[in-house]
Structure formats: structure tokens, C-alpha cells
Amino acid sequence: MALAPPWKKPRSAGPVVWWMRNDLRLQDNPVARTAVAEALTDQRPLLPVFIFDPRFLDRSFYGRVTDPNFEKSIKTRKPVDFSGRKTCALRARFWLRCVTRMKQSIASKGGAMLVCHGKPEEVLAKLPGGSLVVCQSEPVSPEQTDVEDQVAKALSSHCELWRKWGAMSLYHRKDLPFPLTDGPGSYTELALTLGWEDLWRSPGRTADATRIRPPVAAPEVWPKVANLELPGIMSDLVLNDERESLKFLGYTAEEIEEAMAQELPDAGEAAAQQCLEQWLAKQSEEPKDLQEPVLWDLPTGYGPAKGHDALQWANLAKPDGWLRISHYMAVGCISAREILSRAEESVNFNGVAHRLLWRELHRLNAIRWGRRLFWLQGPGRVERPWSWDSAAIEAWKAGRTGVPYIDACMRELKQTGWLAYKGRKTAGFYFVFILGLDWRVGAFHFEDVLMDYDVAMNYGNWVVVAEVDKSSRGAHGFKSVQDLAAWKKEEFEWKLSAEKKNDPSGEYLRKWLPELGKLDAKHIHEPWAMSEESRKTGGCVLGQDYPKPLGGPFRMREEEEEEEERRFHPNDNSGNRYTYKEFIDFAMSKGYDANFGKKCWEEARPVAALQEENEQLRQQLQAAEHQLRSLQGAA
Ligand SMILES: Cc1cc2nc3c(=O)[nH]c(=O)nc-3n(C[C@H](O)[C@H](O)[C@H](O)COP(=O)(O)OP(=O)(O)OC[C@H]3O[C@@H](n4cnc5c(N)ncnc54)[C@H](O)[C@@H]3O)c2cc1C
């Protein structure tokens, strides 16, 4: 007997369940629309469910939460404990608030929503037969897709699971002009492929540019409510009390008190939209702070166009962020395409499009790289020495490294869950190159504490900072972390110097490092450069009131200062003189390791020595000429 075509099949009468994940909004949510439409069309009841999965909250071994036996990974992988939670209590508190706001807005439409604590595959397995579960798939995270697989398995005998692309990305996968498994690997290439004419300078798009689907409206009509009991339900009594909720989710009394002491940004979809509207309103105002920032390590592109900083680089030098919207995006209180379309008329649209495309690149990379994104060698399979010095790791996490800028960043991050882009980059650079520590430990700490933690953005940016994203990037061939640190020290010093110039009075440092409060502006960025006497008067004895700088001391660099030591190599006939770093770069560009570069440096002669020899020769020549003249005179 021929099977009936799917549209003629009798529809199941079970409830429709919208399994909410990081799509906590109604506006521009195609998944919510699908679930609501399915329920309305077939007159099925609807139940939105949000599930706090303990695997994503608790302490865990790195990379093992959904694949404890590493069945999906390479056999040689070993469990590593980086002693951190997947989510600190502060982010959980923000998350809880976003979830309860969602519950309230669904209730205002006449619906109801359940909030549970448990593994989704165990919670949803208890749904009645014939249920349809609709969710937003999260392909950037192998851990999240593992959960989806496990839910599909648990439901396979009695229910159905629809995984939808949703609107977490700017582009729909069906619209992309390349397969998800393969695509442009660099930002510029991606922008050009998608039809952005020159996103480093202008937001123009070609006539045949890949379309970005317009945001979709929130569902107007709400289906009838499905009354279901599921395991791990968090009652309203619990949800209305933040301390009780955090306790329910497994946080200790100490963690709860620490999280409760911190002020939180407003939560939920309405707050996210308000944040965007306020930002848009501000864009038309005249910029107040026109001070030229020092952007040492940013790809500053082509600079301001007609006096206008279209990419808003200046904001990247400040500690406050720009749109300051990432924490809402991470849990899906607002979509990227909503932001893009609302910002279209803004004078700074270029900056918005530019950043959202960086986000898109990280999402596409994460999908393509899969589990390789989390390997020590990174997707670039870079082999180099690493350290796991636990004292250094703990000092960095606690903001006790003795390097004021790094410590201020790490304390702000730990206390508030926020750190500006430059702070994240510089603190990561110091961790990886100056301390030589395993980059994954740093990334895992950020995962624990960042309020806007997002797997693709966090790990994607960390592999770039650690230079393990591409095999062609530097830092190959070092034999020890000390050699690596020596190679990168100058670069780090330039970064610290840029921070000093951007914050000459040390305002940011004073805010987070009260023990340095009495130091003058000249020394607060580099307490190691003070005399013993001024350290005592400033109440900052190194090793006593404030740590000695790990990996330091560091020298603040002035643009006009005398150059680095340069040497010339006897076998090099070009007459050029190179710095230590240039010798190492040269060796590696020729396929040798860093030690070869070091050897060449040792063989090379300092320019200063050559100048001294020249001077001696000149004097000898002068003396000889003088002697000759006296002899000629005598004759
Ligand atoms: C080591 C490291 C870890 C990071 N971890 C995260 C993370 O977990 N979650 C996260 O959202 N961002 C992360 N970022 C990127 C960036 O720091 C934040 O997105 C940005 O600081 C958020 O502030 P904003 O909303 O004011 O950003 P804006 O400068 O206003 O940018 C607007 C939006 O564009 C996107 N965006 C901007 N810069 C980047 C970037 N470099 N990469 C990807 N997307 C970007 C974000 O969604 C951001 O909200 C990380 C960066 C580094 C260097």
C-alpha cells in the first residue's frame, strides 16, 4: 500500500513544546513563530519550556560535559580539570532574570511557560506521546548539538523533534553562497563573498549581495496552554526569589552572596530593545570625547573617513564597550539581524555591520572547526610549549599578577562579568605569551565568568589571541615558554604603553586596584619603575602590598624613544640590521625554529659594537694621518 503524502497524514494531537534555548525573545524569533503556528493550525496546546542543564552550570572536566568518555573525539584525548564552573553564579542570576522576564511576557499573552532544572533529554523524555518539540539548533557548539542528539534519541519512540536554524546568526544557512563545512576563512574574504563592497571603509553592498532576511514580528495570537508536569520544575515561589533559585541550581551560599552583591544590568527582551534604542538615540549626538586614542594592536583599517570614525575604533580604546549589547545577544534577548536592521539609518552603521560580521565569522568558523576549536593545538594544529603553572594561573584569575593593567582587567571581569574588548585581548595575550599558559585554561575561565559568554565568540577570539587559529600564524618552533615570552615581550610592552597613554591619570587602575591608589600618575602603570623610597611613601612595597610583576618588569615604550638593539649577521651581505624579534621571525619564515633565530642573533654583532670599532678605526686612522703629516713636516 502506498504511503500517504506527509500533508495528508493525520496530525498528532499531542502538545507542541517550544524548547527555548539561547533564543529568549518573541520578536524576530522564527522558532517561536513555527511553534505557535503549528499549535494554532492543528489546534494543539502549546507549552514553552526552558531547561537549566546542570552540565552547563556545574564544575566539569574540560570538554567532557556531554561526551564524558570522549567517544566523539580523538582517542588520545585526556580529561583535564581546569577547576572552573561552566557558569558562575552572577551569569546564572542574569540568565534567571531573562528567563523570568520571558515567562512574564508569555503570561501577558495568555500563555504559560515552564522552567525546569535537569538534563533536557531526561526532562523532555517525560512528554506525552505525540508531542512535537521545536527548538533552535546551536551548531556552533558541539556540546549543544550533543544535547540535541540526546533529546532526539530520548524522544524517538513517542515524540518528534524539529531543530530549526532560527535567527542566532545574521545569515540563514540556506542563503549562504558556500557550504557550512567550507567557506571563507578570513574576515575580508567573507565580507566580499557575501557582497559587502568594502566593509573596512563603507557599509555598501553589491546588487547581488547575499540576502539577510528581515526580522519577523512576534506572534500576536497565542494558542491554548498545555498543562504538563515535567521533572525538575522550578516553582514560581522559587523563581521569584533569586537566592532560592540559585540554591536550586546548585550554587553555594558563598557564591550566591557574592553574586547578589553585584549590580546587574536590566534583563530580558524589553531591556535589550531599550538598550539598542538608547544607543541609537545617542548616535546622532555630537561626540564629546574627541581625544585621539592609541590603538596599538587593532587592525585600524584606513582611519577616520572625512573626520568621522565610521568603524568607531575610538570606542575600542575605552573600558565601557560600544553598543554594550553582547550579554543580551548571548542568551538571545535580541537578534543580530534586528540590531543590523534598526541601525541601518545610524551614522555609525558601518561600525555595527563590521562588528556583526566579525561575530558571523566566528560563528561560521566554530561550525566548520567543530571540536577542533577546543584543542590545545587549536584549529591551526600549532605545536609549541605550554605551561600549567597553577600559581600563575590563580594569580591571573584573581588579578594578582603585579601588572596593574592586567590586574584591573581581571578584577573587573571577576566582579562584574564585563571586560571591554581590548582588556580581553591584552589579558589573553599576557596569559598566553608572557606567562606561556595553556590558552584553554584562560578561555575556560572566561567561559565561567563572562556575562556575555558565547561559545563561538569566546573560543573563536581566544584561538586568534593565542595564534593557534591558523597553521600559518606565528609562534611555531619555540623550545620553551621562556623563549616565547622573550620573543613577545616587546609587543606586550607596546600594548601596556598604549593603555598608559589612553589612561594617563590611571583612573581605570585606581578604580580596581585600591592598593595602588596613592601612587602618582607617572608610576601607577609601572610600580616596578619607582625608587624604593617612593614605593614606601606610596604604600606600595612590591612583594608586600602589591605583587612583583610576573614575567616582568616591563618597559613602557615611547614612540620617539631610541630604537631596540639591532645586530647585523656576518653572513648577510645586504648590510641590514635586525632586532632579536626580526631574527626569530626571519628564521621561522624560512621554516626553521625559533632556536635557529636565537643562534643567528648570538652570532650577529651589535650595531653599537660595530660603531665602537668604527670609531676606534677612525681614531687610529687619524693618529696615523697625524703621524704621517709630522713625518712629512720633519722631512
Ligand atoms: C578573548 C576574547 C573573548 C571574547 N569572548 C566573547 C564572548 O564570550 N561573547 C561575546 O559576545 N563576545 C566576546 N568577545 C568579543 C568582544 O569583546 C565583545 O563582543 C564586545 O566587547 C562586547 O561589547 P559590545 O556589545 O559593546 O560590542 P560592540 O563593539 O558594540 O560590538 C557589537 C557586537 O558585535 C559583536 N562583536 C564585536 N566584536 C566582536 C569580536 N571581536 N568577535 C565577535 N563578535 C564581536 C558582538 O556581538 C557585540 O556585542 C571576546 C573577545 C576576546 C578578545
UniProtKB/TrEMBL annotation:
Residues 551-574 are annotated as: Disordered. Its cofactor is FAD. The keyword Flavoprotein applies. Keywords: Coiled coil, FAD, Flavoprotein. InterPro entries: Crypto/Photolyase_FAD-like_sf, Crypto/Photolyase_N_sf, Cryptochr/Photolyase_FAD-bd, Cryptochrome/DNA_photolyase_1, DNA_photolyase_N, Rossmann-like_a/b/a_fold. Residues 14-170 form the Photolyase/cryptochrome alpha/beta domain. Residues 607-634 form a coiled coil. This is Cryptochrome DASH.
